[in-house]
Amino acid sequence: ELFFEVVAKHDKETLLEIIKRKIVIGSFIISDCWKAYDCLESEGYRHLTVNHSENFKDPETGAHTNSIEGTWQKIKH
């Protein structure tokens, strides 16, 4: 499932409130390595990351954000 929400702030507290409201604990979340997402595992989510400065697909887990990046490009324009 996919959702988008406009936010005024991109900080940890704002994003975590939205994540907790919209995403079931235990769900997989795949993101980049932005520090605001560092708490997701401790909040009960299964968090996979992609370090875009090193690769576009994590070589160990296979995690990637290519699909959402493409969708995001369509929404922004």
Automatic annotation (TrEMBL):
Pfam families found in the cross-reference section: DDE_Tnp_IS1595
Boundaries of every ISXO2-like transposase domain copy: 2-76
Coiled-coil annotated residue ranges, if any: none
InterPro entries: IS1016-like_transposase (IPR053164), Tnp_ISXO2-like (IPR024445)
Region (Disordered): 56-77
Protein name per Swiss-Prot or TrEMBL: ISXO2-like transposase domain-containing protein
Organism: Capitella teleta (Polychaete worm)
